[in-house]
């Protein structure tokens, strides 16, 4: 009886494992099918497949590689490129030496997508060409379709539109026998985008409509891409009503699939369309929405850059380990030869010594190579730390310098909404003031974004000759509403001749803006803010003096003696601050080889004295 039970167990166990393997494959297929429709469903099926693998096939590397590939794909669809990169890299490491070329080339294709997201399009094309060779060996038409699709995207981003169109058409040809493949409408959508970039709006519109009309079951991802593309076309044609309708559809589908890049694209189109149509309030609403998505994308891209550097660091570490292993193997082989030669005869002793000396030379060479690699790793670690610190500082500068103008706009809109402005002439005056403030804020945002983009690898000071009178006057105009809101006046009697200093223009604007905003913040109503400009032999002197509440001796000592952010005090109208302003002023003045002095007495006001190098040409 016991013998029979054992045989039953032996027969049933393989059948149960086959059933579990079928269940694993079915769950993975359902996850793949759902990834462009409902991302949460795709994650659910993937997690269920992972549970089966962990319970029944814990030592199967190919199944683990498949799970890593699908995880990388889902993170990529969601716009989480750092996590996507990590999983595709895991899959490459797992599948490289396994007999599963199809899964390995899938992981390589994922690596190419990450290169594409990092704007390293040439590297992306190189990896995709490697994928194409492998898929040609496998005769995998769907895989080749994916490879040529991604290659077409990289070529279009490089501006090679004719080559991109050839790659996209090649991808469609490989998928001609697979009309239900989700990749087909994706390729057609990308063709429409390329036509748009080439300026052929009619062909672009026709191609987008082909996606919408011929593929009724396409994913939300492709729907938002197509509708956003149609909205872009209508904007170019100045049909802003149609552009708004398409833009709303695009944003709706983007929110369903929770694709951050698509939400940013759709909200930007809506903001532009409403602005061109004259609906400034709606334009402002979508501008704020777009700003939120842009900030998230910016942070995500920085995280993606950091993860990419971390991957390179990991590759370097693996290379070091590989060289260490090779060194150890070489040493072992040479030692074996030396022992054998000693056993054969004393006559070969001299040869053994020569071989040993060569070994020492090789060991020293390997040691030097390892040292170089270690130094490279340390340099990359320092770069990662620097990128994180500078990223945080750039975020602080952007938020700090935009807070004041945006608050002014908000106050005007709230007063207007409350009916505070009665007469038509008064409302027109307020509308002009609001338009001017929005334009100035938009200009400030553009300048800050351009400057911050140039500072991504670290805040760099580039002094040039700057007209101080012109720069001060622009900042006074920019802050005129904030001063008017507290019944303050600016007193600035510029010299007859222009005054030039050597300074980084954007950093100088941040210095002036923070000094003037502090003066407004701590001034009493009906007060006056005095700005004076004078020249010495080698320096230019700038004074910003208010008649406000002043600074206590203890607080002044803390400001003058600490190169850290101090606790901000509320303004005379309870304005809040971050404590970052004076820290930025001091840091940027020092970067521009200037000096800062603060004089203040309680209830008497505060004077900020700034000295900057004088232009050598004046």
From TrEMBL:
Arranged from A to Z, the UniProt key words for this protein are:
Coiled coil, Membrane, Phosphoprotein, TPR repeat, Transmembrane, Transmembrane helix
| Signal sequence, renumbered to the chain | none
Q: Where are the TPR repeats?
A: 185-218
The protein's matches in InterPro entries, at most eight in alphabetical order, are given as: Apc5_dom, HATPase_C_sf, HATPase_dom, His_kinase_dom, HisK_dim/P_dom, HisK_dim/P_sf, Sig_transdc_His_kin-like_C, TPR-like_helical_dom_sf
Documented EC number(s): 2.7.13.3
Under which main EC class is this enzyme filed? transferase
Q: Which Pfam families match?
A: ANAPC5, HATPase_c, HisKA, TPR_6
What protein is this chain from?
A: histidine kinase
The scientific name of the source species is Algoriphagus marincola
């Amino acid at each position: 009886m016991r013998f029979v039970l054992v045989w039953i167990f032996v027969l049933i166990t393989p059948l149960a494992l086959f059933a579990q393997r079928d269940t694993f494959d079915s769950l993975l297929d359902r996850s793949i099918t759902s990834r462009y429709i409902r991302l949460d469903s795709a994650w659910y099926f993937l997690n269920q497949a992972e549970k089966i693998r962990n319970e029944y096939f814990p030592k199967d590397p190919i199944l683990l590689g498949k799970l890593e590939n699908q995880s990388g794909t889902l993170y990529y669809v969601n716009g989480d490129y750092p996590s996507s990169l990590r999983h595709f890299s895991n899959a490459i490491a797992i599948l490289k030496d396994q007999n599963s070329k199809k899964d390995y080339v899938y992981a390589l294709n994922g690596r190419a997508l990450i290169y594409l997201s990092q704007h390293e399009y040439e590297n992306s094309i190189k990896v995709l060409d490697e994928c194409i060779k492998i898929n040609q060996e496998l005769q995998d038409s769907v895989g080749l379709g994916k490879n040529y699709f991604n290659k077409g995207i990289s070529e279009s981003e490089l501006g090679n539109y004719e080559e991109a169109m050839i790659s996209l058409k090649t991808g469609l040809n490989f998928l001609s026998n697979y009309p239900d493949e989700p990749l087909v409408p994706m390729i057609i959508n990308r063709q429409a985008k390329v036509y748009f970039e080439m300026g052929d709006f009619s062909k672009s519109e026709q191609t987008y409509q082909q996606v919408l009309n011929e593929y009724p079951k396409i994913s939300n991802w492709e729907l938002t891409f197509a509708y956003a593309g149609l909205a872009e076309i209508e904007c170019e044609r100045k049909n802003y009503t149609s552009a708004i309708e398409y833009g709303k559809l695009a944003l709706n589908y983007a929110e369903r699939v929770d694709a951050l890049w698509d939400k940013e694209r759709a909200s930007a189109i809506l903001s532009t369309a409403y602005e061109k149509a004259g609906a400034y309030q709606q334009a402002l609403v979508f501008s704020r929405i777009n700003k939120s998505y842009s900030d998230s994308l910016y942070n995500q891209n920085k995280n993606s850059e950091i993860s990419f550097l971390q991957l390179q660091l990991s590759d370097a570490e693996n290379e070091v380990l590989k060289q260490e292993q090779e060194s150890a193997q070489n040493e072992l082989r040479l030692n074996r030869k030396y022992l054998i030669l000693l056993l054969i005869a004393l006559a070969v002793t001299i040869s053994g010594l020569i071989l040993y000396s060569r070994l020492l030379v090789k060991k020293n060479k390997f040691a030097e190579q390892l040292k170089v690699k270690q130094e490279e790793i340390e340099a990359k670690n320092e770069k990662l730390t620097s990128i994180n610190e500078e990223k945080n500082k750039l975020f602080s500068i952007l938020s700090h310098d935009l807070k004041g103008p945006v608050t002014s706009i908000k106050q005007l809109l709230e007063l207007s909404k409350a009916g505070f402005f009665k007469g038509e002439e008064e409302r027109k005056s307020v509308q002009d003031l609001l338009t001017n403030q929005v334009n100035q804020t938009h200009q400030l945002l553009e300048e800050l974004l351009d400057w911050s983009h140039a500072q991504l690898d670290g805040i760099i000071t580039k002094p040039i000759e700057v007209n101080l009178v012109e720069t001060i006057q622009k900042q006074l105009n920019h802050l005129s509403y904030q001063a008017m809101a507290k019944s303050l006046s600016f007193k600035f009697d510029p010299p007859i001749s222009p005054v030039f200093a050597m300074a980084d223009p954007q950093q100088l604007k941040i210095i002036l803006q923070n000094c003037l905003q502090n003066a407004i913040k701590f001034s009493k109503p009906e007060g006056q803010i005095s700005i004076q400009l004078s020249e010495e032999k080698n320096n230019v002197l700038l004074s910003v003096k208010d008649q406000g509440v002043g600074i206590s001796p203890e607080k002044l000592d803390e400001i003058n003696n600490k190169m850290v952010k101090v606790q901000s005090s509320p303004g005379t109208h309870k304005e809040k601050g971050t404590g970052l302003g004076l820290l930025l002023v001091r840091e940027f003045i020092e970067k521009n080889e200037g000096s800062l002095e603060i004089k203040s007495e309680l209830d008497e006001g505060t004077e900020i004295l700034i000295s900057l190098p004088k232009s050598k040409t004046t």
